[in-house]
Design a protein that fits this description.
Alpha-Beta Plaits; six-stranded mixed beta sheet; four-stranded antiparallel beta sheet; 10 helices; binds zinc ion
Length: 384
C-alpha cells in the first residue's frame, strides 16, 4: 500500500456508519486488515451478541510498559439533523473536513493508524497500544472489556491518551456520569373519576420535582475548575399515558447526573431512591396496592481525577507542546483506565463544540497538530 495518510484513512472511517445502535464490525475488520499489511496482529474483543467489537494491537516490544492510544469507533446518530452534506462521506470545504465522527472521534483513530508504518519502521524501545472500543456514546459499554484485556496481557502501561476532541489541549480531569431509567406503574381508569385510578404521570412529576430540588442543592457545591462549576442534573426523555381521558398506568423517564470527580458517585441516586421508596411509593400504595416505582441504572462513566501522575502529565505536556492542563465536563473512557491505576489524560484533535451536531467537522490544522504530537511520541518511545 502507498504510504497512507490521515485524511484518506479518515475518509474510509467516516464511510462506515458506525452509529452506536448499529454494528461496528465492518469498521473493525477494516482496521484489522489495515494493520495486517504492516504485520501487526490485532485482538478482536466481541460483545455478547457478537455484533460489535473492540480492537487491541501492540506495536513494539510487548514486554515493556507503553503508551495506549485510546479511541471509540462509534458515533452518535444523524437522525433528525439537517446536514448540508452526506454525513458518511468526508467532504472538504476550505480548511474543514465535514462528516459524522470527524471531531468525535475518528480523526484521532485515523492519525494513529496513519502513523503505524512509521511506528513499525522505528525501533521502539517501548510499545504503542492501539485500543479502539465500541458503544462509548451510549455509556462506555465497550471499554471495560478492552481495559480488562489490556490489564490481563501487558504490564501496566505508562500512560493512556484518550483522543477525544480537546483541540489537542491536555485534559486531566472530567466529571463522571450516572444515567437511570425510572418507571412508575399506577392504575388505569376513566379521567372523570381520578380517585378510582392512580395517575402514574402525576406521581412521576413529584419525582421530577425532587430531582429539580437536588439540582438546586448541587448548584451550591462548586468546583471552579469546571464549566459549569457544579454537578448537573438532567432529564432526557419522558413517556407515559395513552389518551386525554384515561388515567395513565405507565410513566417512565430517563435522567442523568454529571458529577464532580471528588463527589461520591452514589450520593444523588441514594437520595432519590430514599425519597421514591420511603415517601412517594407508600403514598401511591395507599391508593393502589399494585403501584410500583422502579429505577434501573443504564450508564456509569467514572470521572477522571487529576491526581494521577504529575511526571507523566508533564511529559505529555512537553510532547504536545502545551503548557496548560484543563478540565472538561463531558465523560470519556479515561476514568475506566484510571480505575486500573493507569495514568490517563485526554488529548485529541478537533473541538467538542462540533461533536454530536449536524455538519460536524474538523479543521485540517487540528489533524496536523495531532500528527506532530504523535511524531513526538514516536521519537520519545524510540529514545526511552
Ligand atoms: Zn467521543
Amino acid at each position: 500500500m502507498d504510504s497512507p495518510n490521515s485524511k484518506d484513512i479518515l475518509e474510509k472511517l467516516v464511510s462506515f456508519d458506525s452509529t452506536s445502535s448499529k454494528s461496528n464490525l465492518d469498521l473493525i475488520l477494516f482496521i484489522q486488515n489495515y494493520l495486517e499489511q504492516f504485520k501487526i496482529k490485532s485482538e478482536i474483543i466481541l460483545n455478547k451478541e457478537k455484533n460489535k467489537a473492540n480492537l487491541h494491537a501492540i506495536i513494539g516490544p510487548r514486554e515493556k510498559s507503553g503508551v495506549v492510544l485510546s479511541g471509540h469507533t462509534d458515533v452518535v446518530p444523524v437522525d433528525g439533523q439537517q446536514w448540508d452534506t452526506n454525513p458518511f462521506k468526508l467532504t472538504k470545504k476550505v480548511n474543514k473536513l465535514f462528516g459524522r465522527g470527524t471531531a468525535d472521534m475518528k480523526s484521532f483513530i485515523a492519525v494513529a493508524l496513519a502513523m503505524v508504518p512509521m511506528m513499525v519502521q522505528r525501533s521502539l524501545k517501548k510499545p504503542f497500544h492501539l485500543a479502539f472500543s465500541y458503544d462509548e456514546e451510549v455509556g462506555c459499554l465497550g471499554a471495560p472489556s478492552l481495559v480488562d484485556y489490556i490489564d490481563s496481557i501487558s504490564i501496566k502501561p505508562l500512560v493512556v491518551i484518550v483522543g477525544e476532541p480537546t483541540n489537542m489541549e491536555i485534559v486531566n480531569s472530567h466529571k463522571g456520569v450516572m444515567g437511570f431509567l425510572t418507571s412508575l406503574t399506577g392504575l388505569e381508569g376513566h379521567s372523570s373519576a381520578p380517585e378510582k385510578g392512580l395517575n402514574s404521570i402525576m406521581y412521576a412529576s413529584k419525582l421530577i420535582n425532587f430531582i429539580n430540588s437536588i439540582y438546586e442543592e448541587e448548584k451550591l457545591i462548586k468546583n471552579p475548575t469546571f464549566d459549569p462549576p457544579y454537578t448537573t442534573v438532567h432529564i432526557g426523555t419522558i413517556q407515559g399515558g395513552s389518551a386525554l381521558n384515561i388515567i395513565p398506568k405507565k410513566c417512565s423517564f430517563v435522567w442523568e447526573y454529571r458529577y464532580l470527580p471528588e463527589q461520591d458517585s452514589n450520593k444523588i441516586i441514594e437520595k432519590f431512591n430514599s425519597y421514591a421508596i420511603k415517601t412517594v411509593l407508600p403514598e401511591m400504595k395507599s391508593i393502589y396496592k399494585g403501584a410500583e416505582i422502579f429505577t434501573r441504572q443504564i450508564a456509569h462513566v467514572p470521572p477522571l481525577k487529576s491526581s494521577s501522575n504529575l511526571k507523566i502529565e508533564n511529559l505529555i505536556m512537553k510532547l504536545a507542546k502545551s503548557n496548560t492542563v484543563k478540565t472538561v465536563s463531558y465523560g470519556t473512557e479515561g476514568g475506566i483506565f484510571q480505575k486500573k491505576n493507569i495514568p490517563t489524560i485526554v488529548c485529541g484533535p478537533g473541538s467538542i463544540e462540533q461533536a454530536h451536531k449536524a455538519n460536524e467537522f474538523i479543521e485540517v490544522t487540528e489533524i496536523e497538530k495531532c500528527e506532530k504530537f504523535l511524531f513526538q511520541l514516536i521519537d520519545f518511545l524510540e529514545r526511552e
